[in-house]
Specification:
Helix content: under 10%
Distance between the termini: 101 Å
Structural class: mainly beta
Number of strands: 21
Shape: globular
Radius of gyration: 27 Å
Length: about 280
């Protein structure tokens, strides 16, 4: 019999065995369900490669290099923006959101529906990233951004993709103005109009829908025949496949009375009154 069989391990060998066992336990524990979950992307990957299954990542971007993440209109994030001159300097900007909350603690993480931050743009140029409903815009920052008066607020997911409906970013626009601060509550985000066409009849009967300037308008149109819906004055249109509901989304950034019609059947669907 070999003299090494049934031999008790020495102290050094025992310490090595214990260390190896401890490493194995730690390795298994790190992969177990008790580990702390995280939504942040791995180092070396882009924001858009962060995990997240909410919406569809489109190849198109929002015009500032951030890809669009498209979701259904029902339950989609919404935003409205109100601007008031500050008594000392610049403007106070208020964002009103629906189906959305600001999550500054998870920026850079996965795209979770209804979470993220906002980006502010002045005449289309990036101005600031916002993690709450209020933002003070000093005149010095406006000048540093190249000036301009058209302020746009756009909603982004935590992975910096832009939330979108029908390939259009979820956003709202207001104009920087002077004079006394506006009074009254901030505008309610979103204005949705549902219309159906069947056998040449429009339901509900064509009427007028009042919309505050700067709001996001969503037209949900369904037709029993293939057609095209067109918003006059805004030059917005969308194809209407027979039997399908199509959502046309845009920002009401100009005032007036605008007809919404179908091209082929030449039907008046509704009129938008933007004030």
């Amino acid at each position: 019999m070999s003299p090494y069989l049934n031999r008790a391990p020495g102290p050094a060998r025992a310490r090595r065995s214990a260390a190896a066992l401890l490493a194995a336990v730690l390795l298994l524990g790190a992969g177990a369900c008790g580990g702390r979950a995280t939504t942040h992307h791995k180092p070396g990957t882009s924001h858009e490669q962060a995990t997240g299954s909410n919406g569809t990542l489109l190849t198109a971007d929002d015009g500032s290099g951030h890809r669009l993440r498209q979701v259904d209109a029902a339950g989609a994030p919404e935003v409205a923006v109100a601007v008031r001159p500050d008594s000392e300097d610049g403007w106070n900007v208020r964002l009103s959101v629906r189906n959305f909350r600001f999550t500054p603690d998870s920026v850079g993480g996965a795209a979770l529906l209804g979470r993220g931050h906002a980006g502010l743009f002045l005449d289309g140029r990036p101005l600031a990233r916002v993690y709450g409903t209020w933002f003070h815009l000093p005149e010095s920052l406006r000048r540093a951004a190249g000036g301009g008066t058209r302020l746009t607020a756009r909603l982004y997911a935590d992975d910096h993709t832009a939330w979108a409906v029908d390939a259009a970013p979820v956003q709202a626009t207001a104009t920087l103005g002077g004079g006394p601060a506006a009074t009254g509550p901030p505008p309610t985000p979103g204005a949705t109009v549902e219309i159906s066409v069947r056998d040449g009849e429009v339901s509900p009967a064509p009427g007028r829908t009042e919309v505050a300037k700067g709001r996001t308008v969503r037209l949900l149109v369904r037709s029993d025949r293939a057609d095209t819906v067109h918003v006059h004055g805004y030059d917005k249109e969308a194809r209407l496949p027979a039997g399908h509901t199509v959502t046309l989304t845009f920002t009401a950034d100009r005032t007036g009375l605008f007809d919404v019609e179908t091209h082929e059947s030449d039907l008046l669907l509704t009129q938008l009154v933007v004030r």
